[in-house]
Design goal:
By secondary structure, this protein is an alpha+beta fold. It is about 65% helix and about 10% strand. It folds into 2 domains: about 240 residues, Helix Hairpins (Orthogonal Bundle); about 130 residues, Alpha-Beta Complex (endopeptidase fold (from Nostoc punctiforme)), CATH 3.90.1720. The protein has a 6-stranded antiparallel sheet. It has a two-stranded antiparallel sheet with strand order 1-2. The longest helix has about 120 residues. About 20% of the residues are buried.
């Protein structure tokens, strides 16, 4: 937690977030041109092949996607045709069922009529005692034989006619039903063919999807490799710049010491040297015995999200991470960067070692990070970020503090 975070009601991390857009600034202006030139040479050598691979894979993915879209459109069209075939089959089944019901109804009707006609004929023939005009034909006079023969012929003719009509209707219904059955078979065959085509297209779509997923995975892998190479190149550039910064600080410190030694006999030690001071000039105290353990503790928390005022593995702010890491080795520090700046021994950049703290802003009030070696530091910089390792930034650097 910084002084600004401690006393401000503004969203914490807003000030450090300003540095988010330029996380790897060149540490020494004097070596900017050479470092950028070396980095550009590395990137220009490594990028084209990777870019071509990614471009080729993306083109392949686009082609597969277009093919997959066409296959899915074909599946949709086949599904519509199958639905239409199902509708036609349902109509044919209804028509066949209606035809069968009509045949059964006609059979029942004609059978009933035939039975009634025969019964009436027999009744009229045998019931000679009734007053029915038709039955009077069946009297016991001498002409009864002819009359009976004539009536029997009429009755038989009526029954035969009814039966013939039944057969004709049944034959027509049977023919109609056979036609419907044939149409049903053809419709079912067409429907089965459509279903087979749909199944084949679905299988093809599944294969294309699997291929597309494989190509997408390859693209992600290529992009990750490219980003890793770029990050490594940026880290190498940051480390080179940092090493030159340290070398320059060491040279300045040595020059200042030499100048002070040369001036001492003439001035009796009372004249101060001129030029830009290097802070500090005294030999630094030895590293704390727990510095290496604090670095290891902090690195175990890489990926933990930034949480304002956080000081535990569930979330850290900048000073909370430093406080917690050193507490793991039994060293207590305050939970704000300004307090940590005040409670550490300030050393020269030339003497920085893993475990030392880098402070930013006036009096270290804006941000604090831990040096881990190789020109890198570990930090929890702002809301939305997480604990991570980055290159040491010289922009806004207030100084280096050693925990003793």
């Amino acid at each position: 937690m910084t002084h600004a975070e401690q006393y401000s009601t503004v969203e914490p991390g807003a000030c450090p977030a300003r540095r988010r857009r330029t996380p790897f600034r060149v540490l020494a202006t004097v070596v900017t041109a050479s470092v950028i030139g070396a980095t550009s040479a590395i990137v220009s050598f490594a990028t084209p092949a990777s870019a071509d691979q990614i471009s080729d894979a993306q083109a392949q993915a686009s082609a597969i996607t277009a093919k997959l879209n066409a296959t899915e459109a074909q599946i949709a069209a086949l599904t519509g045709q199958i639905n239409q075939s199902d509708y036609r089959l349902a109509q044919l089944r209804d028509q066949i069922a209606a035809s069968q019901a009509e045949i059964a109804k006609n059979q029942q009707t004609v059978t009933s009529d035939t039975s009634q006609l025969r019964t009436q004929a027999i009744t009229d023939y045998t019931n000679s005692g009734t007053s029915n005009s038709a039955t009077q034909l069946f009297t016991s006079n001498v002409n009864t034989s002819g009359i009976r023969s004539e009536y029997s012929g009429i009755a038989t003719s009526n029954v035969t006619s009814a039966i013939n009509n039944l057969h004709t209707a049944q034959a027509q219904l049977a023919t109609n039903q056979a036609t419907l059955e044939q149409q049903k078979g053809q419709a079912q065959s067409a429907r089965d063919s459509l279903q087979a085509s749909k199944n084949q297209s679905a299988s093809l779509a599944s294969q294309e999807t699997a291929t597309l997923n494989s190509v997408d995975a390859n693209i992600q892998n290529l992009v990750a490799q490219k980003k890793a190479r770029e990050a490594a190149a940026a880290q190498a550039a940051a480390q080179a710049a940092f090493n030159q910064k340290v070398a320059a600080a060491q040279a300045a410190q040595a020059a200042q010491a030499a100048q002070a030694a040369a001036a001492a006999p003439r001035s009796g030690g009372g004249t101060k040297t001129s030029g830009t001071p290097v802070t500090p000039t005294a030999p630094p105290p030895p590293l704390s015995a727990g510095a290496a353990g604090a670095v290891q503790a902090a690195e175990r928390e890489i990926g933990v999200p930034y949480v304002w005022a956080g000081a535990s593995p569930s979330g850290f702010d900048c000073s909370g991470l430093i406080m917690w890491a050193y507490s793991q080795v039994g060293i207590s520090l305050p939970h704000f960067s300004g307090g940590q700046f005040a409670s550490t021994t300030h050393i020269s950049m030339a003497n920085i070692s893993p475990g030392d703290l880098l402070f930013y802003g006036p009096g270290g009030s804006e941000h604090v990070a831990m040096y881990v070696g190789g020109g890198s530091m570990i930090e929890a910089p702002y809301t939305g970020s997480s604990v991570h390792i980055s290159g040491v930034r010289s922009d806004g650097l207030a100084g280096v503090g050693r925990v003793v």
